[in-house]
Specification:
The chain is built from 14 helices and nine strands. It is an alpha+beta fold. It has a three-stranded antiparallel beta sheet, covered by helices on one side. It has a two-stranded antiparallel sheet with strand order 4-7. The longest helix has 20 residues. It starts with a strand and ends with a helix.
Length: 384
């Protein structure tokens, strides 16, 4: 049974002892240090300079689970090493395998956090360290702060990683949970109006982008889903959404289970697809890279090269592809005779888990969905 050694270190009494820890997946014996108490009026050293009895009592409390063999071997890996291992495993904090979209998002958050990670072992990290990390990222951004959602996503990534560590006995608790999210800029949540959609389409000279915009505006597909569309997914009446493309990688699954579904295709979209098909081979991806139908398009590059200069010249605001999806949701909500549940089915949003009937018993009705989309289509045709 070890009693450890207590020394003065700066303004504190510090306990040194040895403990089993895990590092790179292996159990090793390691010197450990723990602050016990400040050197103040209640914890004055004895005449020989040794620790007072009150500090020894605190040391005994700290050592009790170590000596009894009941303390789990916590992680001695550095925060950086652990996070890279966590990302490589691709398993979330709740034990589920992460999809490619989430993994990419987590890697993006890791790259933001990496320069500011505390130089500590995982078992040493406390909430103030996470607070300091988040604040350091924010301060480094300066006046050009990121969107509030980015800081929130960064915290969510760190929290998921530490939740994973808790579940595997690598740390005792999740220090991220109570950390404060820095104040960021408001995210761009613009929703294109039907008039703005017409203006964008009229200004867009690239025919592939025009067809893609039309699909996005009247189906509500996410950009990753648009990239993943193949001609075989279109039966003339509906799209069967079954894959996404993120970072150029094809993933044969969707963002959520409810995202994997059929979406009605209305007349205006059918016409745009027919015109687009006349310029394509009809196999592979509907929206593909130039000269290769088996490689999905990178809309970001096409928009930057072929569209943004024109929009800037015409002083036409551009709010990104997702604004088409928000625009459709907005237009549907403006139709007073369309039920909220039908809108959720069109947007393929997850149904609230508390609404058991809607989630498990009321299935998407393609006829009702098509009728709602046709009403939006009719309003669009009336715009000038």
């Amino acid at each position: 049974m070890q009693s450890g050694s207590i020394k003065q270190h700066g303004r504190f009494w510090v306990l040194k002892y040895r403990e089993w820890v895990t590092q790179d997946g292996k159990k090793i014996r390691k010197d450990c240090y723990r602050k016990l108490a400040p050197i103040d009026r209640d914890h004055q050293p004895k005449k020989d300079g040794s620790a007072p009895d009150s500090v020894r009592v605190l040391a005994n409390v700290e050592l009790a689970p170590v000596n009894a063999g009941t303390r789990s071997p916590l992680s001695a890996d550095t925060v950086q090493s652990f996070l890279e291992t966590f990302l490589a495993k691709g398993q979330g904090g709740r034990g589920r395998q992460l999809n490619h979209i989430t993994v990419k998002s987590y890697w993006d958050m890791y790259k933001i956090a990496k320069p500011f990670l505390p130089n500590l072992e995982m078992r040493q990290v406390r909430t103030p360290h996470i607070d300091q990390l988040l604040q350091a990222v924010s301060e480094d951004d300066g006046e050009d702060r990121r969107a509030q959602t980015t800081y929130r996503n960064l915290k969510n990534f760190l929290s998921s990683a530490f939740r994973y560590a808790v579940r595997h006995g690598l740390v005792d608790f999740n220090p991220v949970r109570d950390a404060a999210i820095p104040e960021g800029n408001a995210a761009d949540t613009h929703a294109y109006s039907l008039q703005e959609i017409r203006q964008i389409l009229n200004a867009t000279e690239n025919l592939t982008l025009r067809a893609a915009y039309m699909v996005a505006a009247f189906t509500g597909l996410r950009m990753e889903e648009l990239k993943g569309l193949k001609w075989e997914d279109f039966d003339g009446q509906t799209f069967d959404i079954k894959r996404v493309v993120v970072g150029g990688k094809v993933e044969e699954r969707t963002k959520t289970q409810t995202s994997k579904a059929k979406v009605p295709v209305v007349g205006i979209v059918k016409k745009a697809l027919a015109e687009h098909l006349a310029r394509n081979s009809g196999d592979g991806f509907i929206f593909h890279s130039e000269g290769d139908s088996q490689v999905p398009i990178r809309f970001e590059n096409s928009i930057r090269r072929h569209a943004l200069p024109i929009y800037e010249k015409k002083q036409l605001p551009w709010h990104g592809m997702h604004a088409f999806r928000r625009g459709l949701a907005t237009a549907l909500h403006e139709l007073n005779d369309v039920r909220d549940l039908t809108i959720k089915h069109i947007m393929r949003h997850s149904i609230n888990s508390e609404d058991v009937t809607a989630k498990h018993y009321i299935k998407p009705d393609l006829k009702l969905m098509r009728e709602a989309l046709e009403k939006v289509e009719k309003r669009y045709k009336a715009t000038r």
